[in-house]
Inverse folding.
């Protein structure tokens, strides 16, 4: 099973290269739509910057909350042990 | 204070210093070139987020290999922690990129090969976390196998702009940066690398605690059942 998986992974570059060769002549130049000029660049930069820091702080808070949950579970286990099984 | 704790606190201090320095360099020092516009500021955070995402995928794959082939428990713990960071930074890449694209291309999303391969990478690591959480008894091995496929997508993401003719900026965009933009870019890259390491250590600590608690719960159950 693992050998098959590794073989498949090793074959991936071959598939990619063949696909790339086929696609080389398909290129169509892309033109930005008229809407591109209508959006506010500073607003988008502020949104992007805010999303990054909110997500990172959110992740730290999430880990902290899970840590607290683990501590509660540990306390329950400790009480079970001290109470001779707690049953 | 243990050496591990000292290293962790030093990394936190370094991250704090870089958090202060990076926005200053990005917004006040790096010039706004007329042909790129102010929206190009997103680049200074988007690329480091992608770098952190790739780091997460590789660290997850390394942990998965250690778990699959050597049965190392720390490998599984490391893989879960890194997979979560891969998804976190993936969300940031897939948020900041479309915001830039809306201004530059006029669309939030196009099914360009670079965007599509990054999206697949993101989905694979979401699948790793789902498998790990809901996969039942074999969840660790299933998740580890999926992580290897995810990591195999990283080189594909990187070279996609070279293999295919895409509308996404090429990998040469960093080497061709304006000299006055380089300090901002590399400080931002250092910031996200340090942040990645700090977050990984925090998350790994949680995973280790969870793992030990599971052992303890099993031991208590065995003891109480006689």
């Amino acid at each position: 099973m693992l050998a098959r998986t590794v073989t498949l992974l090793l074959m991936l570059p071959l598939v990619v290269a063949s696909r790339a060769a086929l696609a080389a002549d398909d290129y169509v130049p892309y033109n930005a739509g008229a809407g591109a000029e209508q959006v506010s660049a500073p607003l988008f930069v502020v949104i992007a910057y805010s999303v990054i820091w909110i997500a990172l702080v959110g992740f730290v808070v999430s880990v902290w909350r899970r840590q607290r949950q683990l501590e509660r579970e540990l306390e329950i286990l400790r009480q079970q042990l001290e109470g001779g099984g707690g049953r | 204070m243990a050496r591990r704790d000292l290293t962790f606190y030093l990394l936190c201090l370094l991250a704090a210093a870089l958090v202060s320095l990076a926005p200053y360099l990005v917004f006040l020092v790096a010039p706004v070139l007329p042909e790129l516009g102010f929206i190009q500021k997103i680049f200074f955070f988007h690329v480091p987020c992608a770098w952190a995402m790739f780091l997460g995928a590789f660290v997850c794959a390394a942990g998965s290999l250690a778990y699959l082939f050597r049965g190392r428990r720390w490998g599984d713990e490391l893989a879960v922690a890194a997979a979560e960071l891969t998804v976190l930074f993936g969300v940031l890449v897939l948020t900041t990129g479309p915001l830039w694209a809306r201004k530059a291309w006029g669309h939030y999303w196009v099914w360009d090969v670079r965007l599509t391969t990054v999206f697949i990478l993101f989905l694979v690591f979401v699948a790793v976390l789902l498998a790990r959480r809901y996969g039942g008894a074999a969840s660790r091995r299933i998740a580890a196998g999926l992580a290897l496929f995810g990591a195999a997508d990283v080189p594909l993401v990187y070279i996609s702009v070279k293999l295919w003719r895409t509308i996404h900026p090429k990998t040469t965009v960093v080497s061709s940066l304006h000299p006055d933009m380089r300090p901002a870019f590399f400080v931002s890259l250092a910031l996200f690398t340090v942040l990645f390491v700090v977050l990984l250590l925090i998350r790994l600590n949680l995973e280790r605690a969870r793992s030990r608690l599971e052992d303890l719960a099993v031991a208590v159950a065995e003891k109480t059942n006689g």
